Amino acid sequence: MPNLIKKLTTARNILTQQGFLGLSNTFLKKLFPSGNYFLSWDSRILLECPTSKLEQLKPNPEFTAKMLNASEARLLAGVNNQSSKSIEAAINRQEICWTITENNNVLSYVWISKDRTSVCSDTAFILPNIGLNYWWRDIYVAPEYRGTGKISQHLQSWCQSLAAPEDSNLYCEIDPENTPSIISHQRNGFVKKGNLKMLCIFGVRVFFFSTSEMSKFSFRFYPKNIYYS
Contact 184/30 with Cβ under 8 angstroms? Predict the structure, then answer.
């Protein structure tokens, strides 16, 4: 009974704050968890940032940004309970892990595509009319350091490692309920590109992608767990 009351209270709060659509989205995500190729539901906001904007960011001298090699990245399995399978999948996708540390303690990390690539959402949706660019995903910031500029540090350090940052864009996607992350990205040069919703049933993925200029449905057969592929 206490668990039921707690769930009903949570549902009422979501309904009050986000309305019926927000409550429906939360219910679907609980019922159909992300990544599962049998049954899953995803709702994402796509963000875009020209890398030329990132050159203007100033890092915090108290923190150290570091690009990890594959062996070092595997040691992150214990940080934020990130699974070894998801790390191996990121390495196989030619992604690079960047960390922010202080006194050798990992405060934050993010995975970024090593080279320009076809931008593909973590739902397996290939974003249209974008071409070869960079993709960043799975950013983690230790709770006690959230809101202290970690994203800016990652972005500035990564941008400095590029040979020609002015020719590229950086893309990422965020859960629409993660308001603090969305605000933080927007403060650092990201703008909203569009909304993406996806329903997957036994590997058949039905997508609805919408921007200010267009809306479209599409589908793709991709019978894999996204985060381990």
Answer: no
Tokens 């923190």 -> residue: 63
- E-strand ranges in 82-203 read 95-102, 105-113, 117-118, 132-141, 169-174, 191-201
Architecture per CATH, domain 47-193, reads as 3-Layer(aba) Sandwich (3.40)
- The three-state secondary structure class of 42 is strand
Strand partners, 133: 117
For the stretch 11-55, pLDDT in tens is 676 667 667 766 676 776 666 667 788 888 888 999 998 888 877
Cα–chain-centroid distance for residue 133?
A: 15
Can you tell me the distance from the alpha carbon of 214 to that of 229, in angstroms, rounded to the nearest whole number?
Answer: 30
